[in-house]
Design brief:
single chain, two-stranded antiparallel ribbon, Malate Synthase G, Chain: A, Domain 4, two-stranded antiparallel sheet, about 200 residues
Length: about 200
């Protein structure tokens, strides 16, 4: 069932990409290649590309690429929790030798965890304020991130069970590494760099 949901998500993503005019794509796991290729084959047929789809209605200038203030959305507690949870789970998977990890029915890789920890680092450094589901606000601080890490680890423990969590998940190491790369005063170049010292 988990694989079916993951592949359904890949199909949905690749249908959108092919339909938007992309000629190719990337996948997080080799098993997704045939699934992705099928969606592009349906759109491309015998054509090697869609260069004829010019999208002349879209006009993007350099200033548009740099305008983050126009980005919709808000920093939410749910988003912070997701970043912390996925970041720690990915590091746990990476320490066990898996570069691609199935997390909540999605195939995640180091890029996902890197984005997650980078967001947390930025939010802490720039005194970001998050909004919870009731509309209350609070500042993203190292203490808040640590509290959420504790809560999210308990959630993961309940999901995977004590035996796997403690015997294989390396929760303390994974959490410590996530906090090191997300809360350090200086921005660590890439989240897996300090993790190499923890490989068996």
């Amino acid at each position: 069932e988990v694989n079916e949901k993951a592949f359904a998500k890949v199909v949905e993503d690749k249908q959108r990409e092919a339909g938007d005019g992309f000629d190719g794509t990337w996948v997080a796991h080799p098993d997704s290649v045939p699934v992705a290729a099928e969606q592009f084959d349906k759109v491309l047929g015998d054509r090697p590309h869609q260069v004829d789809r010019r999208r002349d209605e879209v006009s993007v200038e350099a200033k548009d690429l740099l305008s983050v203030s126009d980005t919709p959305g808000a920093i939410t507690e749910e988003g912070l929790r997701s970043d912390v949870n996925v970041g720690i789970q990915y590091i746990s998977s990476w320490l066990r030798g898996n570069g691609a990890a199935g997390i909540y029915n999605l195939m995640e890789d180091a890029a996902t965890a890197e984005i997650a920890r980078s967001q947390v680092w930025q939010w802490v450094r720039h005194d970001a304020v998050l909004t919870d589901e009731t509309g209350n606000t609070r500042q993203v601080t190292p203490e808040l991130v640590r509290t959420i890490a504790t809560e999210e680890l308990e959630k993961v423990r309940a999901e995977v069970g004590d035996e796997f969590f403690f015997n294989h998940g390396r929760p303390d190491e994974s959490r410590a590494l996530f906090e090191e790369v997300a809360l350090n005063e200086r921005f660590v170049e890439f989240l897996t760099l300090p993790a190499y010292d923890h490989l068996d």
